[in-house]
Amino acid sequence: MTGYAVRCEGVRKRYGSKWALRDFSVTIPERRVTAVLGPNGAGKSTFFRLLCGMTRPDAGRVEVFGRTPGWCVNRDIAYLPDRARWYGDQTVRDSFEWAERLLPGFDRDRAEKLAAFMGLEPGMRAGGMSRGRRFMRTAVG
Q1: Is 59 part of a structural domain of the chain?
Q2: How far apart are the first and last CA of the chain?
Q3: Which domain holds residue 129?
Q4: What are the angstrom distances between the C-alpha of 83 and each of 7, 59, 105, 132?
Q5: Which candidate, 35, 93, 126, 127, has a CA 20 to 30 Å from the CA of 138?
């Protein structure tokens, strides 16, 4: 391994005219629990999206376990935002179908078993779920 889980050097990310991160650098060692704290708009969510490869920096370098974020890294990490973006009429089954199309290596059989273990039925709609159930749905599919 590299000795670090995360390394960002000189990262810049802007959305339109608003800077989310400007000259951001951090190194997080392996096998450590690290809190990421800051006020609204400080760039915390952008930082996590960069680590997952959900967005790319405008400048600078981002590494997770010595690799550029993307699908190969995402097998080794997990990201569960506090507000998952699901439409109210989407079902648990829909999330599995979405994951099969977009996530290389997605194991639908395993996801279905996890969902059953958590009491999530395939036809359940996101709009009728509690926040906790929506978190579970995001975690399995």
Answers
A1: yes
A2: 29
A3: 92-140
A4: 25, 27, 24, 11
A5: 35
Which of 56, 81, 80 is closest to 68 using CA atoms? 56
DSSP string, 2-66: -SEEEEEEEEEEEETTEEEEEEEEEEEETT--------TTSSHHHHHHHHTTSS--SEEEEEETT
Give the Cα separation of 103 and 101 in Å (integer).
Answer: 6
- 85 part of a folded domain: no
The whole-model pTM stands at 0.63
CB 32 within 8 A of CB 5: yes
> What tokens were used for 4?
């670090």
Number of structural domains in the chain = 2
Contact predicate 59/11, CB 8 Å: yes
- Give per-residue pLDDT as tens, 8-61: 999 999 999 999 999 999 999 998 888 898 888 899 989 998 998 888 999 999
Burial (CB count <10 Å: 0-12, 13-18, 19+), residue 11: buried
Identify the burial level of 24 via C-beta atoms within 10 angstroms of its C-beta, where 0-12 means exposed, 13-18 middle and 19 or more buried: buried
- Contact between 127 and 91 (Cβ < 8 Å): no
